[in-house]
Amino acid sequence: MSLFNAISISASGMEAQRSRAEIITENLANAETTRTPEGGPYRRKDAVFTTSPVAYSFADALSAASGRSNGVAVSNINIDDREPEQRYMPGHPDADPEGYVAFPRIDPASEMVDLLGASRGYQANVAAISAVKDMIARSIDLFR
Questions:
Q1: Mean per-residue pLDDT for 2-26?
Q2: How far apart (Å, rounded) are the C-alpha atoms in residues 27 and 75?
Q3: Which residues contact 49 (CB under 8 A, 6 or more apart)?
Q4: Residue 27: helix, strand or coil by DSSP?
Q5: Could you give the CA distance from residue 125 to residue 130 in angstroms, rounded to a whole number?
Q6: Contacts for 12 with CB less than 8 Å, ≥ 6 apart
Q7: Is 9 exposed, middle or buried (0-12, 13-18, 19+ CB in 10 A)?
Q8: 23: exposed, middle or buried (C-beta count within 10 Å: 0-12, 13-18, 19+)?
Q9: Which residues are bridge partners to 59 per DSSP?
């Protein structure tokens, strides 16, 4: 695997973690949303990662075919299918005839932990790219 391929792999990881962070912030922003255009409360979303080949040249495509240089990508976004949380709020505009309102099943604390994990994953990929850039710079210095 070339050093430039390592940068591509880390870049794919950064992109995947960015997508995950966007989904988590959407969940946090809609933690109290009781009405959506689809009807009912907002449904929590979660990103699913998968390996993804990173190929830019024939040599990279060949090594990707042998399974040696895989990046990461968001393969699917799962939507929570659990029943919404019911809260007794008879004066709420979205209350049912018994006075219960359906709220999304989103725990802000666990969402913040997930967001912290996405941030740390992004930072780890940035550190890996920085290390590869340093290796490339030192290699160039050796040839001077």
A1: 92
A2: 19
A3: 16, 20, 72, 73, 74, 75
A4: helix
A5: 9
A6: 52, 54, 71, 72, 73
A7: buried
A8: buried
A9: none
- Residue keyed to tokens 């666990």: 110
Q: Hunting for tokens 């309102």 — which residue is that?
A: 101
- Pair of tokens at residue 58: 């024939």
pLDDT reported for residue 53:
78
Write down how long the chain is.
144
The DSSP letter of residue 40 is S
Report pLDDT digits (tens) over 20-53.
Answer: 999 999 999 999 999 999 889 999 999 999 998 7
pTM over 0.90: no
Q: Find tokens 């929590």 and name the residue.
A: 44
Q: Tens digits of per-residue pLDDT, 54-109?
A: 755 656 555 555 555 688 999 999 999 999 999 999 999 999 999 999 999 999 99
